[in-house]
Design a protein that fits this description.
By secondary structure, the protein is of the alpha/beta class. The chain has 31 helices and nine strands. The protein binds guanosine-5'-diphosphate. Guanosine-5'-diphosphate binds next to helix 1 and helix 4.
Length: about 700
């Protein structure tokens, strides 16, 4: 930008050396006035640079960019209205963490930013070694070390500012994660603020939403001037604000600030070395152990194992009660409803189908409770931090961890928000690799399948099995990502900062609300989507009925039978024949040509086809299939007991099936989401194809390998 005119806004905390830098830049060519309408002093001056004229505007010293004080508002309004070419933020390098808080807010706003690392002499004397190159890269704003008092670094600062100003005109806001609750609230608010094609340039709707949650009086005023927004956004804002306050027992402002500091803390750890022992905060002291290179992963595995032990232990009794209840309900329905299609629909389609899924609600609830504890204490951020180091070797990104955990990295989660969570990944190839591998995580829909099969075939090894499945799913996801990054998605991985917000003591109320919200999602899904698909699967397994002559043959054999026992046996065989004859039965049988090497029978095939709609359907469909061809009509057994008794099943096949369910095609909604997030069908179809092929190969290896070892 040689020779061109340039406006620089100088910003920073009070006492960072801003005035000294302003003087060093402009010398005697200064003017003083007032910002319009307020008593805040406005200073500006001129500097010569490469033959051009540079105007330097000295913004008032501030700590934040939320309208808590006139200075903050003036600084913000100036930036938004005047749009200077570049903002130079003066930070006190000796108090870097505290000073970078403002930098994060400039980045959230999206202004072109250069950071003057001032007081470098003091920082060095205190034994701080700052890798400004790395810090600048991670933060996304170049850093120039300066000593304003002596003028050191000032020319380089001007050159960098000119370079940044020439490089871009658009404001590009940094989108941080502020934790589950605030992120969720922001998504809702953003959608609301964007309604009617409203354009919040240059601020961006997410930023406006953020300020609304921070209770920014100025932005609230602005929003309330628009009658439509005033009627909709304000109540929404209030509801979301209250919700966060209720669950987290803290104002959203405080939580947002925590996450900004968390971001800085992660940054600081990567780029600054303290050569002298400094006072450690409590969080830091805990992190010395929990995020230690060796101890951290060991603790993580131990905690995970403990969580699984706890979940199975705590849910054993209530899951039993639910099973008994649905068993009783089925019996009662049979007694009340006259025999026929309608009875079959209610008993086999609805109660034995959906009931099987609902029966695992307590297990799901305890899992979500454990996850809520990990999230609300801040430990989940440490999990991400520890795994981040591992993921880099697989060509993934720090935020891939978050997406994977959201998708069910701990067990229980959902790939739909998981795929959406990859939006914060700026590196397109790492993002795509993440999108394509998060469906391998053990989402909440796979859990009932695991719980069913583990309960039926591995009852003495429950926690061990889930632990193994978790490790397998991570192993597969990482390998798949590595292969993708070596082949279709080649490229470098950009550096990234993991947030480390301080630990918090969770409240029981908050934990319960989080647990309830997610468990309710599970129950609601069982009562809607799963119910619908169950009814469809029931119909497919019921129609078309047996042809008349075949039915007549059965009937005559039944009436010819001597004892009641023989009659019952034939009745039952007829029912099974009917299921086999049904549309689904024929499809399931046809598929055995493909799945026989995996050990799957026709019922499993039908269940797996249904499972593409949603993986809970695997459980529901098996419930219906076994209910329709009931093996022992006298007793109302749970599905797990039925499977354990069925000679077509054995532990090896059950394990092969769990691996298959873990890996094969993501459910329909996830596929649609992948299509949306990757901008078309090719990647969505690829995700379905590669996972199904992989699932087949793995289940084949498990089943045939196991048989070779004599396990079948
Ligand atoms: P402002 O409040 O941000 O405008 O800060 P000032 O420019 O008034 O500086 C505050 C104090 O820090 C003054 O005593 C300056 O002389 C001193 N100061 C400014 N920059 C530096 C620097 O780079 N190194 C050292 N050692 N002191 C500085």
């Amino acid at each position: 930008m040689a020779g061109a005119n340039l406006t620089i806004a100088l910003a920073g905390n009070p006492n960072s050396g801003k005035t000294s830098l302003f003087n060093a830049l402009t010398g005697a060519r200064q003017h003083v006035g007032n910002y319009p309408g307020v008593t805040v002093e406005k200073k500006w001056g001129a500097a010569k640079f490469q033959g051009g004229e540079v105007t330097v505007v000295d913004l008032p010293g501030t700590y934040s960019l939320t309208a808590y004080s006139p200075e903050e508002l003036v600084a913000r309004d100036y930036l938004v209205q005047e749009k200077p070419d570049v903002v130079v933020h003066v930070v006190d390098a000796a108090n870097l963490e505290r000073n970078l808080y403002l930098a994060v807010q400039f980045l959230e706003l999206g202004v072109p930013l250069v950071i003057a690392l001032n007081m470098m002499d003091v920082a060095e004397a205190r034994g701080l070694r700052i890798d400004e190159q790395k810090l600048g890269q991670l933060l996304g704003a170049p850093m120039v070390p300066t000593v304003a008092r002596t003028g050191k670094g000032v020319q380089e600062l001007l050159a960098t500012a000119a370079r940044v100003a020439a490089g871009r005109q658009e404001w590009r806001p940094l989108e941080l994660s502020y934790g589950h609750d605030v992120d969720h609230a922001l998504t809702e608010l953003t959608a609301n603020l964007e309604a009617g094609g409203r354009d919040w340039q240059p601020l961006g709707p997410r930023w406006v939403g953020l300020k609304l949650l921070e209770n920014d009086s100025e932005i609230k005023k602005q929003v309330s001037r628009d009658p439509v927004l005033a009627a909709e956004t304000e109540p929404l804002r209030q509801r979301l604000w209250d919700h966060i306050k209720n669950t987290m027992d803290d104002d959203p402002e405080g939580i947002i600030a925590d996450h900004r500091y968390g971001f800085i803390s992660g940054l600081y750890r990567q780029a600054v070395t303290e050569t002298r022992q400094q006072r450690l905060e409590l969080s830091d002291r805990i992190d010395r152990v929990l995020t230690n290179r060796l101890l951290g992963p060991a603790f993580l595995l131990a905690i995970l194992y403990g969580v699984y032990e706890f979940v199975f232990w705590a849910s054993e009794a209530p899951v039993g009660w639910f099973e008994q209840f649905f068993g009783w309900l089925g019996g009662a329905a049979e007694a009340v409803i006259p025999e026929g299609l309608f009875q079959s629909l209610i008993v086999s389609g609805v109660i034995d189908g959906v009931g099987g899924v609902l029966g695992f609600a307590p297990l799901i609830a305890f899992m979500f409770f454990a996850i809520a504890i990990m999230e609300d204490t801040g430990y989940m951020a440490r999990v991400a931090y520890i795994l981040d180091r591992l993921l880099r070797h697989f060509g993934l990104h720090g935020n891939s961890v978050i997406a994977m955990i959201v998708s069910g990295g701990i067990s229980g989660g959902c790939a739909v928000p998981g795929v959406m969570a990859t939006r914060t990944l700026k590196d397109p190839k790492a993002r795509l690799a993440t999108i394509l591998t998060v469906p391998l995580m053990n989402c909440g829909a796979k859990l009932p399948v695991y719980a069913l099969l583990i309960g039926a075939f591995f009852a003495s090894q429950q926690a061990n099995m889930l632990f193994a499945l978790t490790l397998i799913s991570w192993g597969l996801a990482l390998l798949a990502a590595r292969v993708l990054r070596w082949t279709l998605l080649k490229g470098e991985t950009a550096p990234f900062v993991m947030e480390l917000p301080p630990y918090r003591l969770p409240t029981l109320k908050g934990l319960l609300i989080h647990t309830w919200e997610r468990t309710w999602q599970y129950v609601k899904k069982a009562g809607t989507v799963i119910l619908g698909v169950s009814v469809i699967m029931w119909a497919l397994m019921t129609f078309p009925g047996l042809p008349q002559e075949r039915a007549a043959q059965w009937e005559s054999r039944i009436s010819a039978a001597q004892s009641q026992e023989a009659k019952d046996g034939l009745q039952h065989q007829m029912a099974q024949d009917a299921v086999r004859y049904s549309a689904a039965g024929r499809m399931g049988h046809a598929l055995t040509y493909v799945t026989a090497p995996l050990g799957f029978d026709w019922r499993t095939n039908v269940a797996l086809v249904g499972g593409f709609a949603a993986k809970e359907v695997v459980v529901a469909t098996m419930g219906t299939a076994y209910s329709l061809g009931e093996v022992d009509p006298e007793e109302s057994q749970s599905l797990g007991e039925r499977l354990a008794k069925d000679s077509a099943w054995n532990p090896l096949m059950a394990f092969a099936l769990m691996i298959f369910v873990m890996v094969y095609a993501p459910c329909f909604v996830t596929v649609v989401m992948i299509r949306r997030e990757t901008g078309g069908w090719p990647w969505a179809l690829f995700a379905m194809g590669y996972t199904t092929v992989l699932a087949y190969v793995l289940a084949l290896l498990v089943y045939q390998g196991g048989r070779l070892l004599g396990l079948g």
